[in-house]
Amino acid sequence: MSRIGFKELKAYQQRYGTLGLFKKSVSRVCSFVFSYRPLYIYEIEGVPKTKVKTLCLLEIRRGKREDIDLIVGIRDYLNKSAIRRYVQYHFDSGGELFLGFSEGKLAHVCWLFYSPGFEEQWAHIHLKKDEAHIASAHTDSEFRGQNIYPAVLQHILKYVAEKNIRQVYITSSPKNIASVRGIEKAGFSKIGEIHGLKFFGKKFNHHWSSSSDEVS
Q1: Segment holding 10, helix H or strand E
Q2: What total number of domains does the chain contain?
Q3: Is there a domain that residue 6 lies in?
Q4: How far apart are CA 147 and CA 161, in angstroms?
Q5: Buried/exposed 63-87: b ≥16 CB within 10 Å, e otherwise
Q6: Do the Cβ atoms of 178 and 188 come closer than 8 Å?
Q7: DSSP alpha helices (H): ranges in 46-170?
């Protein structure tokens, strides 16, 4: 578990209070010792005929390594230096970043991964050469409920279709109702469920592949 600096702890405490800091710290420690995470798997082939309309202005562009500070700023992280390394690793693994802006503000972050390279970070799904996986999406709290997430997903689907990617997958926690709704609104269909288990930092993931359509 990576170390957290005093300044980062202080900044989080000032924003969320001592109780908020305590809850975050306990959650962080517990998730390192043991965590269990079920995930729904969704898929889509091609570009949906029905286009999602956002309830605000939205501009989507590809992200670059120079955008790391923007990404860190959109989420509430205790260890910002670790997140910077995490984002760098996404890029190094062949990930492509998509950023959604509304009136000049960063509203959404989303990653796209291919095979190979992808499985090192997301070992629970095995991809073929003509497949991709969308992951690590986040909408800033100020812009939630405005159809930004499904709009970005459809933008990515159009992008990969032009690269001859046949199938695209995405996962979501069953508890994240907003994420599930956004995924389904974008046109994805649920095809299965997998389970991830982590014990003292070691991952024990179920695996899914389109070759067998089965969880192992």
Answers
A1: helix 6-33
A2: 1
A3: no
A4: 21
A5: beeebbeebbebeebbbbebbbebb
A6: no
A7: 68-74, 80-92, 118-121, 148-161
- 196: domain CATH number? 3.40.630.30
- Whether residue 8 lies inside any domain: the answer is no
- Does some domain include residue 29? no
Q: Rounded CA gap, 152 and 59, in Å?
A: 9
The parent domain of residue 173 ranges over 35-215
Q: For 94-116, what is each residue's pLDDT tens digit?
A: 899 999 999 999 999 999 998 75
Hey, how many other C-beta atoms are within 10 angstroms of the C-beta on 91?
15
**β-strand partners of 105:** 102
pLDDT band, very low/low/confident/very high, at 195 (cuts 50, 70, 90): confident
**Tokens of residue 72, six digits:** 């860190």
Residue 26 lies in a domain: no
